[in-house]
From TrEMBL:
One of its GO terms (molecular function) is flavin adenine dinucleotide binding. Belongs to the acyl-CoA dehydrogenase family. Its cofactor is FAD. Residues 122-218 form the Acyl-CoA oxidase/dehydrogenase middle domain. The keyword Flavoprotein applies. It catalyses: 3-sulfinopropanoyl-CoA + H2O = propanoyl-CoA + sulfite + H(+). This is 3-sulfinopropanoyl-CoA desulfinase. PANTHER family: ACYL-COA DEHYDROGENASE (PTHR43884), ISOVALERYL-COA DEHYDROGENASE, MITOCHONDRIAL-RELATED (PTHR43884:SF12). The keyword Metal-binding does not apply. Pfam families: Acyl-CoA_dh_1, Acyl-CoA_dh_M, Acyl-CoA_dh_N. Residues 231-382 form the Acyl-CoA dehydrogenase/oxidase C-terminal domain.
């Protein structure tokens, strides 16, 4: 790996940092309190190229590489994790799958709309009874007799951006009884009849990234909205999640960095027993551990992004690297947020400071797009070759 960033990579990082500090950071606490979706900010992020960083310019994106995406995600997440969640879904889960498996018409119509910030995308895999065991889904898609459309019935849960998404990549069973091989992927227009949104979930953290259940009742999906071929849906879903895990690792690093920087400032200023608390050995040990984990998480995530870029150029897989990055970075975010809050004492527990928000936001990175437990299974199976 070359540890020097290119001018393009540094440029998108600077754009993301400037927007994050000027437009997101000042309003992050209020959006967290209200749970309101930051639509205006998201549209502006689209105009800046942040909602389609790896999307080729011919489809309305910035045409940049996976490392550029990591650098930009970290900056947005350091200001507010909820904004970065929306950014991650649009970039990694929605656009990525269509770019890899979609037709030219699908890319022009759906990727362009999301990458430009004109519309919001969603990724609909999880169901009330199937989370980590995604192949156990019940949502059905039945092809019409004339082959012109599919009739979809079922319910999906925990859909990020579900309350506001115009389009969604949906996974449903087209051939029952064969497990993962019977899953297919579809591009859904949420303004069509038969699509229904449930209540917005009252979440612990990332509260401004609206989440809800969605339900399909005799929804007619045009046959041309099939993504890939029938039966390829599960493979598409897992491939997309590999890319998504790099995004969540980047988000976790941003949260951890914000918490770490807050702790650094606090230990220099806060005094006890006549001296800054940063001079106490137990505090110094916390700072050292936080810094080591943050740097390691960052390097592992950049390695995963590098592996993804190499896979796109030359073929191959990057799932192990992505899972390692996601696992380590998410647990680092939780560790650093915990230690930073502890260093702040009672003030860290107060909503007057952002530490409690970092702590709440960090937790979800250990859960979505594959729990820490699932990441360990993926890593171990890839290493041993055993199932």
């Amino acid at each position: 790996m070359d540890f020097r960033f290119t001018e393009d990579q540094l440029s998108i990082q600077a754009v993301a940092r400037d927007f994050a500090q000027k437009r997101i950071a000042p309003v992050a606490a209020e959006f967290d309190r209200s749970g309101e979706f930051p639509l205006e900010n998201i549209r502006e992020m689209g105009q800046l190229g942040l909602m389609g960083i790896e999307v080729p310019t011919e489809y309305g994106g910035a045409g940049m590489d996976p490392i550029s995406y990591v650098l930009a995600m970290i900056e947005i997440a350091a200001a507010d994790a909820a904004h970065s969640t929306i950014m991650s879904v649009n970039n990694s889960l929605f656009c990525n799958g269509i770019l890899k498996h979609g037709t030219e018409a699908q890319k022009q119509k759906y990727v362009r709309a999301i990458a430009s910030g004109e519309a919001i995308g969603a990724y609909a895999l999880t169901e009330p009874q199937s989370g980590s065991d995604a192949s156990a889904m019940h949502t059905r898609a039945v092809k019409s007799a004339d082959g012109s459309h599919y009739v979809i019935n079922g319910k999906k849960s925990w859909i990020t951006s579900g309350p506001v998404a115009r389009y969604a990549v949906l996974f449903a069973i087209t051939k029952p009884g064969v497990g993962a091989k019977g899953v297919s992927a579809f591009i859904i227009d949420t303004e069509k009849e038969g699509f229904h949104r449930g209540k917005t979930e009252p979440k612990l953290g990332i509260r401004a990234s609206a989440t809800c259940e969605i339900e399909f009742a005799d929804y007619k999906c045009p046959a041309e909205n099939l993504l890939g071929a029938e039966g390829e849906g599960f493979k598409i879903a897992m491939g997309v999640l590999d890319a998504g895990r790099i995004g969540i690792a980047s988000q976790a690093i941003g949260i951890a960095r914000a918490a770490y920087e807050a702790a650094l400032a606090w230990v220099r200023e806060r005094k006890a027993f006549g001296q800054p608390i940063g001079s106490f050995q137990m505090t110094q040990a916390k700072i050292a551990d936080m810094k080591c984990r943050l740097d390691a998480a960052t390097l592992l995530t950049l390695r995963a992004a590098f592996a993804k870029a190499e896979a796109e150029k030359h073929g191959g897989r990057f799932g192990t690297e992505a899972s390692i990055a996601k696992l380590y970075a998410s647990e680092t975010a939780m560790f650093v947020a915990h230690q930073a809050l502890q260093i702040h004492g009672g003030m860290g527990y107060s909503k007057e400071m952002p530490l409690e928000r970092y702590f709440r936001d960090a937790k979800i990175t250990e859960i979505y797009e594959g729990t820490s437990e699932i990441q360990r299974i993926v890593i171990a199976r890839n290493e041993t070759g055993l199932r």
